[in-house]
Structures are given as C-alpha cells and as structure tokens.
C-alpha cells in the first residue's frame, strides 16, 4: 500500500532541485480549485515540502470534489532562501481531477531558469 493513499491523500507532489541534484526542501505551495461560474480560483489548502522535497495530504478524500485544480509552487522564495535568484517567481500547474479512486502525483523538477512536470504514480 502506498503511504500517500494510506493517509487518505488524493494529491501529492515531489519537488526536485535538478540544478543542485537535491530535493527542494521547505518549498511553500498552495492548492486552488477553479470556480467556473465566477471565473476565479478558490483556495483549498497550503503545504510545504519536507526534507525529501515531498508534500502529502494536499487534497484528501474528504476535501475532494471533481474539477480543475492548480498547485502554485513558490519557487522565487525557495531560490531566495538559497541565496540565488530564479527567473520564475512561482510555478503554477493546472490539472483536472475526475476520479477520486486514483492517486494524483505531480512531480516538479526545477532549476533557476527552467521547470518541468508530469503525472507521476
């Protein structure tokens, strides 16, 4: 059984600092859900990556509703804490969740001048 599913987490993330080859520890992030009626984003929760760059329980089965979500990663603050300047002050990943029985894992790979993501398992 996966640890994230055991804790009831539908949504997890893992952030890696590929420039330095380390996990992006203590990187702040927030989760928002799209409100199509009002064309705005509604705040859901916040999190911070642990020492391994992972963050669990961002969206639990109790808070899940199908829809379009985004994770906003505070990458500018992260680079500033390291004494570096990054090009992107934040990174937002927008995605669709339709099935509450599936785990949704969104890794983020960052450097000061680039980022990439994919749907993980």
Please characterize this protein's 3D structure:
The protein has a single domain (3-117), classed as Transthyretin/hydroxyisourate hydrolase domain (Immunoglobulin-like). Helix content is 9%, strand content 50%. The protein is built from 2 helices and 9 strands. It is mainly beta and 121 residues long.
Major beta sheet summary: 5 strands, mixed
| SS content category | mainly beta
Order of helices and strands: HEEEEEEHEEE
Tally of helical runs? 2
Mean pLDDT, as a whole number?
A: 90
Q: What global shape is seen?
A: globular
Which architecture would the CATH scheme give at its second level?
Sandwich
Percent strand: over 45%
Number of strands: 9
Secondary structure blueprint with pairings:
Elements: H1 3-6, E1 9-17, E2 22-23, E3 28-35, E4 40-48, E5 54-60, E6 67-73, H2 75-81, E7 91-97, E8 104-111, E9 114-117
Parallel strand pairs: 1-8
Antiparallel strand pairs: 1-2, 1-5, 3-4, 3-6, 6-7, 8-9
Organism: Erpetoichthys calabaricus
Pfam families: Transthyretin
Catalytic activity: 5-hydroxyisourate + H2O = 5-hydroxy-2-oxo-4-ureido-2,5-dihydro-1H-imidazole-5-carboxylate + H(+)
Brief rundown of the structure:
It contains two helices and nine strands. With 121 residues, the protein is mainly beta.
Which structural traits does this protein have?
single chain; 121 residues; mainly beta; Immunoglobulin-like; 5-stranded mixed sheet; 4-stranded antiparallel sheet; 2 helices; globular; disordered N terminus; Transthyretin/HIU_hydrolase; hydroxyisourate hydrolase activity; peroxisome; hydrolase
